[in-house]
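Sample A.
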Amino acid sequence: MSVQPLRLYRSIFKLHRQMPPALRYIGDSYVRDEFKRHKEADDFFVEQFMNQWSSYLHDMADQLQASRAIAQSVPGASDFVPEVGRNLPSDALDKMTDQQIGQLWALKEEAKKIPENAGEGGR
């Protein structure tokens, strides 16, 4: 991996520290796996890969910032858990390959298996 992908990788993990433990656990595992799988990818795919993960980083940072702003405006919200995520646009599913749809389904099924206390007390 060159410096740029490594910087993005680290930035994503740093951002995940702001998430609830269960989401952090899922996110960290997924990011680690995806970056490993694309370590030796062709330049064409690396550019797309980097663009998508950069977009993810910015989207999640914006969502976490907005969530914190809401929490600060609500009295007594010290135990506030940030809400993150968004629905997948319907046209995005149409653009996915069968392999990508399979990965999305597998991710959904794995997320159902994660216990509520996953990620607490470290990685």
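Sample B, a different protein:
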Amino acid sequence: MIYRYFILCLAAGALLIGIQAPNLLTQYKQRLAAQYAEAMVYYRQYQAIADKYYDGEISGLIEDHEASQQPAFQAEAAIIRNLVQRVQTFEQQQRYFQTDYPRQLWALAWRHDEELMTGTLEHYSFNVPLNQQAIATGALFALALVVLFDTCGAACKGMWRRRRRHRYTSRRS
């Protein structure tokens, strides 16, 4: 009896967590878009310099900064390189989220950018969106968790029964 109540509470909790998944996805994508837009403001400026003096190769700009005798330019090379890597990371992240909804959830769970996810979770605002995606995600998450828990419980019970049966038959022998 208590086991069933526990399962119901587990399912309700999983449903609430699953309902938040579309909201988390939306907030992550918004943070991604905002940080990408900000990075592109500075990237375009460096790219314009590269277009003018290095035939569009930003790597040439970075190499010249690294080879410079002035420490300020050498230090700026690392900043430009980090900016280029950041823009590339954001572009890759955006490609992950231009797919169907299940793949977007998969990318959010397994291929997210740690910095973006940390910022999203720190500033996360809980909403209860009762749209079709949120309800379906919550129900599937709850169902998966309950089935997983029931399967593990059944496996543990089976092992416990075999162990008790084995102990009982070994005592009788």
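Observation for Sample B: The chain has a mean pLDDT of 88.
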